[in-house]
Amino acid sequence: MTDARDSVSFLLGHAPREIRGADPTMTVLEWLRGKAGLCGTKEGCAEGDCGACTVVLAETVGAGLRYRAMNACILFLPALDGKQLITVEHLAERALHPVQQAMVTYHASQCGFCTPGFVMAMFAAAHTAPVVDRGAVDTLLAGNLCRCTGYRSIADATLDVCAAPVDDQFTEAEATTLAVLAALPKGPLALRHGGRRFWAPDSLATLAALVEAYPEAVILAGGTDVVLWVTKQFRELDAVIAIGGVAELRELTTDGGVLRIGAGVCYTDAMAVLAGLHPALGELVRRIGSVQVRNSGTIGGNIANGSPIGDMPPALMALGARLVLRRGVVTRELPIEDFFLAYRHTALAPGEFIERMDIPILLEGAVLAVNKVSKRPDQDISAVCGAFMVVIADGWVADIRIAYGGMAGVPARAPAAEQALLGRPWNEATIRGAMAAIEEDFSPLSDMRASAAYRATVARNLLLKLYLDHAA
Amino acid sequence: MDFNEAAGTNPIDQTRVVGHAHDRVDGPLKVSGRATYAYEFHNEAPDAAYGYMLGAGIGKGRIEALDTAAAEAAPGVLLVLTHRNAPEQGKKGKGSARAQMASAEVRNFDDPVAFVVAESFEQAREAAHMIRVRYVTEPGRFDLVAERGNAKKPEPKGSTLADTAVGDFEAGFAAAPVQLDVTYTTPDQSHAMIEPHATLAIWHCDRLTVYTSNQMPNWAQHGLASILQMEPTDVRVISRYIGGGFGSKLFVYGDIIITAMAARKLQRPVKMALTRPQIFNHTSHRPATIQRLRIGATPDGAITAIGHEVWCGNQEGGTFETAANQTRLLYAGKHRMTSHRLAVLDLPVGNAMRAPGEAVGLMALECAVDELAERLRMDPIELRVMNDTQFDPETGPERPFSSRKFVECLRTGADRFGWAKRNPKPGQMRDGHWLIGIGVAGAIRENLTMKSAARVTLDPQGQVIVESSMTDIGTGTYTVHAQIAAEMMGVPMERVIVHMGDTDMPEAAGSGGSWGANSSGSGVYAACDKLRRVLAQKAGFNADDVVFAGGKLSQGNRSVTLESLADPQGLSVEAEIDFGDLTKRYAQASFGAHFCEVGVDLATAEVRVRRLMSVAAAGRILNPKTARSQCIGGMTMGIGAALMEQCVVDTRHGYFVNHDLAEYHVPVHADIPDMDVIFLEELDDKSSPLKAKGIGELGICGVGAAVANAVYNACGVRIRDYPLTLDKILPHLPPMV
Predict the structure, then answer these.
(1) Which residue range(s) make up the domain with A457?
(2) Options B467, B576, B682, B697, the catalytic residue
(3) I need a surface site. Which of A29, A332, B589, B647 has the fewest CB within 10 A?
(4) What is the ipTM of this complex?
(5) Which of A345, A359, A343 is nearest to A407 (CA)?
């Protein structure tokens, strides 16, 4: 990457900024509160759980600006490159922004520490989709915790001010902002800070070459996990390759009955397409993380992480998804269930990375059900996540795929249960047989989230629920 | 001003400003990120160095070896403070302050082992993790259940005795035709306010100023002075904005003490914030309880014997959770006993969290009352109404309640919530996969008052400036002080400027125990009352029938503007409200009733609250907007306590495992459905000149039981071990088909 830039360029509010020589694994939050002296953005947890550090990144999409709420605490500085960073201070440069005024009017701010995060999440929403009902509020603000108000006043403020797109100083300045963003330097990044190196290539070929050349480098997608390696586990990341600038990895296409999702597609961008594939997938994605987390987190990252409790893998297994892996110029495909070898151990070879997922579109008549079971309805890790795809033909099970998360060291299919169903009549007796067979498939663990007995019972119950919901 | 007799009519009764739903005056600052919190005073100390605390990685034991060489040599490091070079300290002080890094002893997990100060936060953090510590681990007592047998009768907690007894409980209970004997448990809980504890310490010669996040700045001032062995007058504590506290910030922890010690050593300002994980183990938590309730009744529902025994744990010298307190006051009954037993545990220190005592005590008592109602085949509301008492049942009619609308709360709520539609037989209401149930619980929270001073200044522009060391932890005290001063002085709220959270100002009540607005507001009342007299005298009026309105004081057809009476430098008075023995002569408490509807998923036992409504009677509601939000916030915390909040104890290593906001669950938006609060009209003239009572904690009191009673009504499963998580409920659910 000989043509790469060695500095990060962005707009802070309306002012162009260039950062050179800074630690690329510094978070946007640390930079804002420490270096930039902008303390309006708060640090509540420093790991993306509370939303107090929510800022908005605006970027050029098509002919306009797209505003997205992000957790500044789980965002490395280079993520700002080419974008406009808007914080709570920028909203009230003249008078209170309508969102801020609504928060005052409805008494939606008490101690005030979570407030800037709420303001920014609402500000982004006021520039994107209208928020029409309480359910939409719950989804929009699931990533913002408030311990004082009990949320009621915040929900009322949101329903008032985010019901229709707002006209504010940012919409007024949109043409100028677009022009300034367009004038920012473009192209790949190669940053250095002492011995630390950070690359952000802008093509698949360069990415592949870099990953092959530096197989020990950490591949950074949304960073919702990787940033915590630095801030919570105090790891020194000496080589990081960010995939966010690679256009090919952000592609979302449908091709011959297959939905192709690039590894760099964030959950937010995938959500609508997946919901179109099946509403259960949309509902699953809605409950993964929060708006802020979905705006940066990617499905590719969720898979590459190899976590036993990632919520997407069971659904992808039920759908029969395949992964396309790349090493240099060579690609290979494998079914997603073959990717997870053991706890946090995947089939990725050194120098290899996930390029995309290929998801077969559901056949006409196929039933899909996905159940994420957690103590808390939002922002919670699943105790059990079950995904089921069944095709019933003339009262018989013609095809079945069952997968669970949280039941073993990796997300996995349930072969014995599947065997107990395939080619059998679709009735309660068959289901009871499959429920019994789950015991052969899994020996779950007890932990804080649930006991082994609970997990085993729920895994069985979800099968029964599938049957009861689709008995006819 | 002494408050010894019931308040007569006073200017607050005009309710031109008080009693109305004003927006909070600090709202615009907070929504625009301009309210300055403890860690953010850059301008006051642009050269502040950054501190990072390294906490102990064991639950109990001592430091055997400590290697700080690498950290000391690390880039940017200015100081590594450990027990080896920490200055001599006083042992303990006000606000539960205790010496930090005073010896090699490890008192609990995340007890400070070292404090690294560097030019940048990242340098301090990095160096802290270069420190190598070798511990000698000692066996610790980490399990309350195991230590229950070793629990002893503790010293009184303030004026709260460990035990009370009236009549002959054992005989009364044995003779009761209907008996209930049940044991409930509640877990350790964390305040989980959103702002972490943080401190900036600045020394000017021998005078210390700390910017910190503390509910009780004067406690912190005196606590710090004791530990640092200096005069309290040489310590100034400033807490202007506090990002939530709920009791966690009543006290003095390592952040305040160590930062001050390091800043003194370096002769340079130092600041530090606890990390979110450190908050859980280094600061305090609400301690777990085991509660046995025995209630005896006649077949028609009259309680004849009621006993509430509580076991809890704390570190040596720690206090007990007063979980039987409400049982001393809530219901009638001839034979009574309550007791608290305290075991020594080596877990982090337990202390007050929102409504200490009642919050968890009612989770047991109000479920037990429902269990009794079922045994009696009585409606749970009728049982509560039948056993209402208008006087302190431990003392007798000579100590009546100052005001008590408990029955009215229950009746109003039943009517508004649609209680009549409830099927008393569990498991009868369904909505698809969901079993639906309705539950009720009563609420009581003792009304506490604290003496409180304020200074009021009339400036030559006719503005009224109110100053005190009071804090606003999100409750709305800035606004309430402005309302009271505006009411008293007859000016619009825009003409009032409120300053607080500074120990250089007159000592106010601070924020805790729901006493904040009522007590400190009465301090403002007293100061304004004094200013009114001074002004009347200056104007040559007879003080008693002067009218303060429209920025003027008038008598008959004569009137004078306020500003014309102010000296060029302003006219300042200071006064204090001192509460006498009215809380002894009258039982004082706020009351309420909660109504809850839940759904329980048949396949997974996930519980979702569908509706929650509370009715509250808490004297004069000073500002319905702030009070309502306080209640809803408390109710939300009550849902958390019922369904999810629990510090998971690692009983081998002695610490709270789920020490972050991903794993310590507090409710999210989707947990909080349709919620409402109804305030009953009430004036309590024995509580304060404002005729208000505490409201900040009433919302949480009893909610957990209302949720649990609704869960029982939904599915017939009675879990007596909070929180009611899905894995506890599932094995007992009826079959799906």
Answers:
(1) 367-469
(2) B697
(3) A332
(4) 0.97
(5) A343
